[in-house]
Amino acid sequence: MTNRVVLIGHPVAHSLSGGMQQAAFDAEGLDIRYELWDRVPLELPDAIAELKGEEFVGANVTIPHKEKTVPLVDKTTEDAHATGAVNTITKDGKRLIGHNTDVAGFNVALEALVGKQKMPRQAVVLGAGGGARAVVYGLIREGFQRVIVFNRHLHRAEGLTRFFARSAAHMELRAMPWHESVIEAELAKAKVVVNATSVGLRADETPVPAELIPPDLLLLDLVYNPNPTRLMREAEAAGCTVMGGELMLLHQGAAAFELWTGRKAPLDLMREKLEEGIAAGAAGAADGEVAAEGPAADAAAGPAS
Ligand code: NAP
Q1: Given the CA of residue 64, which atom of ligand 1 is nearest to it?
Q2: What pLDDT digit, counting tens, does each position of 233-292 carry?
Q3: Are 90 and 259 in contact (CB under 8 A)?
Q4: Intervals of the chain under pLDDT 70
Q5: What is the pLDDT of residue 153?
Q6: How far apart are CA 285 and CA 305, in angstroms?
Q7: Going from the N-terminus, what domains does the chain have, and what CATH number goes with each?
Q8: Does residue 244's CB lie within 6 angstroms of at least one atom of ligand 1?
Q9: Residue 148 pairs with which residues in a beta bridge?
Q10: 52, 66, 116, 191: which is the annotated catalytic residue?
């Protein structure tokens, strides 16, 4: 019986996790197939329940389901509990265990972005979904003293800051309305900016107009396909140091691989596959295709359940 690991999200066709994880399973001689399951929110409970089947080793969970998955698993680990978001599921018999490997992935990316400089203490986070929760938790753990969260729907950013109220009691964590003048003022005060919205994923759009971006920011865009995103291009042109989401994706994926298999992840191979997927997406975009429909996404797509 071939074992199965699935990625549950909506959309999923843009994802590069399939190519990366399948290559890692194959290289380790594991009979596991990584499948992409595109499921709308109403279908999420059934998709999660289906994982109890014997052939399933576990799952990844992505946009927009990470928070809604928390009450659907039997147990959450510390990072999933602390963030209120699940991106990886493992199994203990039929019991489903929810993890959050985005936190570890984010911290690797943040450290690489900051490099040899002193770790800054002020950040702006754009977005308040599942990815933003891992980012905010990672910033709190890293010792940031002021983190401002902007979200299109303010109530979600307020919910996020309330969720972290206790772990952020020693610092300033605030939700602010998505007004360009307010964003501009906060960007001028911050050193680190993280885009945790999905803007830029489906079209060549940016969450922040170029004229609001000051030079010298350290900018991390969680969107990894396409790379670079419009936000990254415009921030770089303004003089910022920029990074896309691929390093975070690589390390959250490596941590998930290790949880499913108990083996050390073949990091170099996974990085290579990720780079191939990004390059294929860029080539598709240059040919006038949508990046998410490049050959890597096709190769990664397994049969729907
Ligand atoms: P999510 O829970 O669905 O949240 C989506 C976020 O994007 C929300 O804050 C939403 O705001 C915002 N948004 C969507 N459309 C918008 C628009 N037109 N204008 C302004 N804001 C908009 O998704 P998620 O899981 O947090 O993922 C968010 C992004 O991060 C995705 O692109 C995902 O691929 C990426 N990500 C990457 C990694 C990585 O390893 N690189 C890890 C995690 C996530 P509202 O609440 O107002 O709708």
Answers
A1: 3
A2: 999 999 999 999 999 999 999 999 999 999 999 999 999 999 999 888 766 555 544 333
A3: yes
A4: 282-305
A5: 98
A6: 29
A7: 3-100+250-288 (3.40.50.10860), 103-246 (3.40.50.720)
A8: no
A9: 124, 174
A10: 66
- CA-nearest residue, atom 4 of ligand 1: 129
Report the SS3 class of residue 143.
coil
Structure tokens at 207: 């969450």
DSSP strand pairing (241-243 vs 218-221) = parallel
66 assigned to active site: yes
Q: Which H or E element spans position 230?
A: helix 230-237
Q: What is the largest CA-CA distance in the chain?
A: 57
Closest C-alpha residue for ligand 1 atom 42:
131
What distance in Å separates the CA atoms of residue 304 and residue 39, rounded to the nearest whole number?
10
Interhelix angle 246-261/267-286, rounded to 10 degrees, is 140
Q: Write out the E strands in 14-82.
A: 32-38, 56-61, 75-76
3-state secondary structure of 56: strand
Residue identified by tokens 């959050």 is 100
Q: What is the structure's pLDDT at 297?
A: 36
Give the β-pairing of 56-61 and 88-92. Answer: antiparallel
> Can you tell me which atom of ligand 1 is nearest the CA of 197?
7
Which residue, judged by its Cα, is nearest atom 39 of ligand 1? 249
Cα–Cα distance for residue pair 281/279, rounded to 1 Å: 5
CA distance 2 to 24: 15
Alpha helices in 78-204 (DSSP H): 78-83, 102-114, 130-141, 154-163, 180-189
Q: For a pocket test of ligand 1, which of 183, 197, 221 has the largest count of ligand atoms closer than 8 A to its C-beta?
A: 197
Q: Is the separation of the CB atoms in 99 and 90 below 8 Å?
A: yes
Q: Fill in the amino acid letter for 298.
A: D
Q: Which residues pair with 257 in a beta bridge?
A: none
